[in-house]
Amino acid sequence: MNDDTIFALATPKGRAGVAVIRISGKNSFNTLQALCGVKNLEPRKATIKTIKNPTTGDKLDKGLIIYFKAPASFTGEDVAELQIHGGRAVTMAVLEALTKISGLRQAEAGEFTRRAFENNKLDLTEVEGLADLINAETEEQRKQALRQMEGSLGKLYESWRKKLVKSLAYLEAEIDFPEDELPQEITENIQSQIDSLINEISEHLNDSHRGERLRDGFHVAVIGLPNAGKSTLCNKLVKRDIAIVSKHEGTTRDVVEAYLDLGGYPVIIADTAGLRECSEEIESEGVKRAFARAENADLVIVLIDGTKNIENQVKKAVGKNRMYVVNKIDLHQQDSDFTIEGKKPIYISAKADKGIGALLESLTITIVEKMSCSTPALTRIRHRTMLTECVDYLKNYKNEYDIELAAENVRLASKSLGRITGKIEVEELLDVVFADFCIGK
Ligand code: GDP
Question: Model's pTM, two decimal places?
Fold first, then answer.
């Protein structure tokens, strides 16, 4: 497959000042020759050239061309980049001309990055970091993706795998040459190495899913009695109308979601149906969903109608992580000594726009506390599965008396780590990982 030279538009389709077309493979330089008539080009130096259709000789555009000689390129192959004017007709004409050059074909989704992986330019965690960077929508998502793309996770997992491979080498020596018993200190060393790896990996796994949450969003559910003001509050929080505000009870029958950026973290806020018992079928389904959403949310805002009995409303609250907010302070006197579960609630009036700033501040502090992390965070369920498997094999190793079976567990543990970065047996994983990319990446 890699005999083909591939090309694709690397910038989005549509009108823009500049469009970039990427070409990768052994015909990259010939293609520049055919399009621009260049004889030789200094690699990595931008040159302005007229681009012509090699079949008809028609002028197509004038643009910058850059040549990257293998292996010093994104894919590790010879690469050419055309920076042309970003009009629809210009890009179409240049792409059309490329299809007519023999040995060239349109790239498939993710193919440039796949070649970079196959040429050891990126490991799988770096590929995933790159995909996340392209999709990042908030500051913290961008930072996490960039760290991962630069190898923070890959290096960590690879260092653990190398330690296991070393232990395995000693164990195999012991199996192959049982008469030359390993010195006591080496055997002890293997034990302590594996013990410390079990601890280190378990600690990394026990991170409250910070990295995964940062990729997928921190889920906040707003619950409360019908008419407590949930929809009004959600609308204020997202500064646009996402939910229907009405005086009639039970208008939010389903869960309505909106997306917020708080302190650089992505937050998905869900307005739920009022928590009450009801006979109407559709609404009771909504109430069921509200309960389910609250149980699974990372944080629940329990919105209390301050004009009604507060204790009864607190009793109905669900969810592990709760923030109590008392609404409608425009209609009732607030009691500054009042506490719920030992903490003062936050007082607001969603309708009169009072206290919303303080609520947002408090939400941001909670979210930053739960999501920020100084060490590289695990970002995907794929990593979690492999790391858990690795720890299980290492625990099996410790419980195994037969040295050959014990060594087999260390081998399997190191393979689980290798699968995360793509060091071994990765074919079946590749399609999953590269499916996240679009053409031209
Ligand atoms: P939900 O059923 O909990 O989603 O409640 P809504 O947001 O639909 O609000 C129900 C009613 O309460 C509407 O008439 C709102 O205008 C009103 N409401 C919401 N918040 C406040 C508030 O802070 N003060 C007052 N006076 N009314 C409010």
Answer: 0.77
In order of 118, 123, 416, 423, 430, the CA distances from 426 in angstroms are 11, 11, 11, 7, 6
Helix axis angle, 381-399 relative to 152-176, nearest 10°?
20
**For ligand 1, atom 6: residue with the closest CA:** 229
Atom of ligand 1 nearest to the CA of 327: 23
Between CA 64 and CA 52 the distance in angstroms is 13
Task: Compute, in angstroms, the gap from residue 230 CA to the centroid of ligand 1.
Answer: 7
- CA 224 / ligand 1 centre spacing (Å): 11
For the chain, what are the domain ranges? 5-107, 124-207+382-433, 217-371
Question: 290 CB less than 6 Å from ligand 1?
Answer: no
Backbone angles phi, psi at 51, to 5 degrees: -105, 125
224 lines ligand 1 (CB under 6 A): yes
pLDDT band at 349 (very low <50, low <70, confident <90, very high): very high
CB-based contact 171:194 (threshold 8 Å): no
Considering only CA atoms, which residue is closest to atom 16 of ligand 1?
351
For residue 173, what are its two tokens? Answer: 């020596």
For residue 251, the ligand 1 atom closest to its alpha carbon is 2
Q: How far is the CA of 284 from the centre of ligand 1 (A)?
A: 20
Does ligand 1 have an atom closer than 6 angstroms to the CB of 246?
yes
DSSP of 328-384: -TTTS---TT--BTTBPPEE-BTTTTBSHHHHHHHHHHHHHHHH--SSPPP--HHHH
Confidence of residue 284 (pLDDT cuts 50, 70, 90): low
Q: Which of 223, 230, 231, 232 to mutate to test the pocket of ligand 1 (most atoms within 8 A of CB)?
A: 232
> Are residues 22 and 438 in contact, defined by beta-carbon separation less than 8 angstroms?
no
Question: Domain 217-371 falls in which CATH fold?
Answer: Rossmann fold (3.40.50)
Pinpoint the alpha helices (H) of 150-301. 152-176, 184-205, 210-216, 230-238, 281-296
pLDDT tens profile 370-381: 888 777 888 999
Of 3.30.9.100, 1.10.260.40, 3.90.70.10, 3.30.1360.120, which CATH number belongs to 5-107? 3.30.1360.120
